[in-house]
Design brief:
- The protein has about 325 residues and is of the alpha/beta class.
- Helices cover about 45% and strands about 15% of the residues.
- The protein contains 11 helices and 10 strands.
- It has an 8-stranded parallel beta barrel with strand order 1-2-3-4-5-6-7-10, surrounded by 5 helices. Strands 8-9 form a two-stranded antiparallel ribbon.
- The longest helix is centred in the middle third of the chain and has 27 residues.
Length: about 325
């Protein structure tokens, strides 16, 4: 298993400078943003697809530093009811898949998206309760008319380009739990899998270890993010887990994202890594930093140190067993 980082963290640095920094920390992989919410600070797929010289230069910048690209990521909402927004995210996805094939990258990460509640809707609608029955009707309409048809087509497109799709299980989108991921995978095929981020499991009340077992037994984990979450035991009783306060209101929020080891202890993260290995995941653990209490450098360095400790101990355990 290799340790990597989601490079959107260093979007303010030039690609070469950011890669040098990542390599200096002993990491072996990078996940690079190619559109949508991650942006295109380090990689514009349309430009690289038009120029073999730029493509070769980009690939050399990564590989010459002993790094690999674990995934290209274009997290957006291609099911957005506003057609121009959906079109932009869809085009980013299509170009990202094409670029991944050219670069030999196995996985494209994104969100499932979330439709509106009817054809003329203006905003996404994320049903989270089975009653009143209106929500059940909305949910059925979304999956039957938008989610399954779109991703069935895109899964075939990705498979034709030898790429897997890693959907991040994220609140606010149609696929946000192991069950919804498996529902879509059953309908659209095994090209669809999870970009599993435990931070989004914790705030939903899902044990990441159990999520790994559920998805891993189905061979449905294509990529893995390393980010932590802390749930405030007092605030959660006031606001609930669907807390709508801004992430910047950290003192009062029910939960907030933290760097690895600052929401859950190292033993918990060791259990997560062990579970990944148990279900046969032997790819990349990609660090994502969204900790509002730490600077980029501090949060990243702490996550690297904690995960390196876990991975080293896991390796030593293997040696002892042999």
């Amino acid at each position: 298993m290799k340790l990597g980082v989601f490079m959107v963290l260093f979007g303010g640095r030039k690609l070469e400078e950011a890669l040098d920094y990542v390599a200096s920390k002993g990491l072996k992989a990078v996940e690079i943003g190619t559109g949508g919410n991650p942006g295109k600070a380090h990689c514009n797929p349309a430009e690289l697809l038009e120029s073999e010289a730029k493509l070769k230069e980009f690939k050399h910048a990564v590989e010459s530093r002993g790094l690999m690209i674990s995934a290209l990521s274009c997290h957006g909402n291609p099911l957005h009811p506003q057609k121009h927004l959906a079109k932009a995210d869809h085009e980013d996805f299509v170009n990202t898949v094409k670029l991944a094939e050219k670069l030999g990258v196995e996985v494209v990460n994104t969100f499932s998206g979330c439709p509106g509640d009817h054809e003329d809707a203006k905003y996404p609608n994320w049903p989270v309760a089975p009653w009143p029955n209106d929500y059940q009707e909305i949910l059925a309409w979304q999956w039957e008319n938008k989610v399954i048809p779109y991703w069935t087509e895109q899964a075939k497109f990705a498979a034709d380009h030898h790429v897997k799709i890693g959907l991040e299980l994220h609140g606010g989108f149609s696929v946000h739990t192991p069950a919804t991921l498996l529902r879509l995978r059953e309908a659209a095929g095994e090209t669809i899998g999870a970009n599993l981020d435990p931070s989004h499991m914790w705030w939903q009340g899902i044990d990441p270890v159990q999520a790994i077992h559920i998805l891993g037994r189905a061979g449905a984990i294509h990529h893995f993010h390393a980010k932590d979450t802390v749930v405030d035991p007092i605030n959660v009783n006031r606001y609930g887990v669907t807390d709508m306060q801004p992430y910047t209101n950290m003192l009062d929020r029910a939960w907030q994202f933290r760097s690895v080891g600052y929401g859950h202890d190292i033993k918990t993260w060791a259990d997560i890594i062990s579970a990944l290995r148990l279900v046969g995941y032997d790819y990349v653990v990609s660090i994502e930093h969204e900790d509002g209490l730490m600077s980029i450098e501090e949060g990243f360095s702490k996550a690297v140190s904690n995960l390196q400790q876990v991975l080293i101990e896991e390796s030593l355990g293997d040696m002892w067993w042999v």
